[in-house]
Structure prediction request, 612 residues.
Amino acid sequence: MSFERLVKKIDEMRNPTVVGLDPKVEYVPEYIKKESYEKYGKTLAGAADAVLTFNKGLIDAIYDIVPAVKPQLAYYEMLGWEGVKVYSDTVKYAKSKGLYVIADGKRNDIGETMKAYSAAHIGKTVIDGEEVEAFGADALTVNGYLGSDGINPLVEACEKYDRGIFVLAKTSNKSSGELQDLLIGEEKVYEVMSKMCVEWGKSTIGASGYGAVGVVTGATYPEQLVELREKFPSLFFLVPGYGAQGAKAKDIAGAFDKNGRGAIVNSSRGIICAWKSSGADEKEYAESARASAIKMRDEIVSEINL
Amino acid sequence: MSFERLVKKIDEMRNPTVVGLDPKVEYVPEYIKKESYEKYGKTLAGAADAVLTFNKGLIDAIYDIVPAVKPQLAYYEMLGWEGVKVYSDTVKYAKSKGLYVIADGKRNDIGETMKAYSAAHIGKTVIDGEEVEAFGADALTVNGYLGSDGINPLVEACEKYDRGIFVLAKTSNKSSGELQDLLIGEEKVYEVMSKMCVEWGKSTIGASGYGAVGVVTGATYPEQLVELREKFPSLFFLVPGYGAQGAKAKDIAGAFDKNGRGAIVNSSRGIICAWKSSGADEKEYAESARASAIKMRDEIVSEINL
Prediction:
């Protein structure tokens, strides 16, 4: 009912990072696409098939050194329902390899509808008395703009099924401040949001001191990471922006507590496109991803006390 | 590149309402479910099949009197990829009947990822040079917490493919004020968000005076509807909360301009579950939905100057 399962995996692997599975079609090596296009044509089904092969290769290459993956739902939805089927297959495959799966969907709604999202992504769907799993991720990213009505249904699922959520607080993008940095009294919007997250998660604190309601806070704002870490000791952080978005290991050190816990740092393109930036042969995309994941782990671990 | 297509359909039908297709399994009549369960079992596939039959019946019953439908993605995702396939089939079917389709997904992200959502829902996906349509709705609901980086990719698609977006401003739920009503200087968060929407949409104003970036503003807050209508004449409103959530026709009158334009009012359960509340035979679910949709139209049109 908190992030204990994730904390345990991070501790065991001594690796507080997550690989973002954001498989744009142009990131997939040609030899994989060729085979899929021969079967299904240059169609949504063809591209989806190629993405699944690509994802499985990436997962095989990193599952023993990385605790978690974070598929970004947008890249699957852009391939239609065929892509969403591949998302579903990717989650299942990652879980079969022991990976913790964070569904990056930034879902948000209220009441009955939020219960539906909760069932879809981290809970169970009841079909006339039969309980079935739809996508079955371990955690979900969430947008909290709608307030408690959008979060409580998720907290219920976190408690019942031992899952977690990450609510957007201070995001990694350049324009994040347009709303998030505005002052409400003496506090910025992202601080107000973080405070609400503390409240939403207070019944879910685990042995490590972290609750099931974490926040997303970008590596591209190192000062805010330090500030939020100090103010909100019960919030686990999902930290995007490392690598391709420009943040370095020293920038994210402030996200961690004195035991080197409390945060997981994501890199997507930096890992899954490593074969492109390193100039490796495309057939070595998986090995390149592994090498890049090891480098990221070592860089970050060297800056913290894990 | 604005909401002109929607405005035209509303004018032609003299009906500023949209039917929310939020098909929870328990809303589907037993005789439909029985047939689907016989084919596929009480599974995600079985429930999804029943939902598609239900949706097609609803669409057949209302397409000649209602300008638009608004499928809520959560209810399809809760049935896994099989449900998302039915979402896709529902959009196609609705469009084949001439309905304007608003995808209620409240999507949000940044940069490349938002481009992927944009391609998925209102644009096109490019697969190695081939342009294909993933889900192909006419408009998408969006959460603007991440600022311009999350909106600009959608505005591009609106311009290129003649689509629209509705950004959450003041939502219909009880807890919407926890963040949305807080004061930033002398303005509430939802006003700040609405102002940003004006800015985002300013290059997309159509003949009716409305741009492609609208807002979601709940029927349950009538005073805010009046206030936002006066302050922001270029923002088209999507107004949820009518019917099941408690708002009446007179509550929403303030959302419309002096020509009875500028808003579309949603009802979901009030229409699609009408057969339950009216005590009709379940086989008359479609007729009940039609009767309910006509009642809603007449109630609202009687309060405005359309």
Q: What stands out?
A: Chain B touches chain A through 73 residues (CB under 8 Å). The two ends of chain B are 23 Å apart (CA to CA). Residues 44-62 of chain B form the longest helix (19 residues).
